[in-house]
Design goal:
The complex is a heterodimer of chains A (78) and B (91). With 78 residues, chain A is α+β, with helices and mostly antiparallel strands. In chain A, 35% of the residues lie in helices and 35% in strands. Chain B starts with a helix and ends with a helix. The chains are: A alpha+beta (78), B alpha+beta (91).
Amino acid sequence: MILTEDQVTIVVMAIIEIIKEALGNGDKVEIRGFGSFRLRTRKSRKGRNPRTGATVSVPEKQVPFFKTGKELRELVNH
Amino acid sequence: MRKADIADALVERVGISRKESRELLELILTTIKETLGKGDSVKIAEFGSFLVRKKKERRGRNMKTGLPMQIQPRKVVRFKASYQLKKAVIK
């Protein structure tokens, strides 16, 4: 299989789109040996508007989180 | 969602065979892993960056025995989600 750079870019973009959509649906994406992507909940907190200094309440939200897989962790820390 | 599910979704979206899809996915993941293994970071536009960070030596505790122990300096992978990815998961 010989691919041009553009074709590879299309595949990479499709992969990130697939993962993005799965996370958007609240699904977990597990890639053995690489790591897993899932959502973590950030609690609501009191923040400040940096411009006015007014106290604002930042609502609870979901953020993407990546946990490194065992194989990758060992590969990086050899 | 697991690796096989990503490969299947790729078949539908890109119009390649199942075999090609699996091979390509594997190749891309291996490339990212090897790059990180060399200590280089990997940045994927509109998705995020995989950064290799050096952790200093520190004192910790063996969780099982409760005994203090020295944790050696090490390298870890940290993923920083891009703005677009963060936006995609917020309802």
